[in-house]
From TrEMBL:
Coiled coil: none annotated. GO terms for cellular component: elongator holoenzyme complex. Pathway: tRNA modification; 5-methoxycarbonylmethyl-2-thiouridine-tRNA biosynthesis. This is Elongator complex protein 6. It comes from the Eukaryota. Belongs to the ELP6 family. InterPro entries: ELP6, P-loop_NTPase. Pfam families: ELP6.
Length: 159
């Protein structure tokens, strides 16, 4: 981590995560998962994008490489956003992720039977190769206690 104040705060957060997830004695974590609810919050608290990306890199080394687990990160993005720091973090995370779930509203606007769509992007390779990512797109409707997913154009309202 760099030597700025926000980076040292993230270092303390990383140390807490590493200590919390590292098995002690006879404890054995089988494939731990680190969930980061909203990484964008760290930027709004004054952390620099490089410090945030360093933080995620160090978490990835401990959780994914050493403990053989996974990291799930939520970030907010908006193509119309002028928040360049947030977009830098989003683009970098997308570049280094094996699986991307991109949730967005409908480009056609509001619809009472379809609330949005989710794009599932499975990275075939994180290396620069000619292999194409696998992309699946589903639409969804949020209900009281669950979410219904369906292929584009196949909602109950259309059929």
């Amino acid at each position: 981590f760099s030597s700025s104040e926000s980076a040292s705060d993230l270092r303390a957060l990383f140390d807490f995560i590493r200590t919390s997830l590292t098995p002690a004695g006879s404890d054995s974590w089988k494939g731990p998962v680190l969930l980061v609810d909203d990484l964008s919050v760290l930027l709004s608290l004054g952390a620099r994008p490089v410090a945030v990306l360093d933080f995620i890199h160090y978490c990835r080394v401990v959780v994914c490489s050493q403990l053989k687990g996974n990291i799930v990160v939520l970030v907010h993005s908006n193509e119309d956003s002028e928040d360049e720091e947030n977009e830098l973090v989003v683009n970098s995370l997308c570049h280094h992720s094996d699986l991307i779930l991109w949730v967005e509203g409908l480009v056609t606007g509001f619809c009472k039977d379809v609330h949005g769509q989710i794009k599932i992007i499975k990275r075939v390779s994180l290396e620069l190769t000619a292999e194409q990512d696998l992309v699946q797109i589903y639409q969804y409707k949020i209900q009281d206690k669950n979410v219904t997913f369906f292929a584009r154009g196949l909602s109950a309202a259309v059929l």
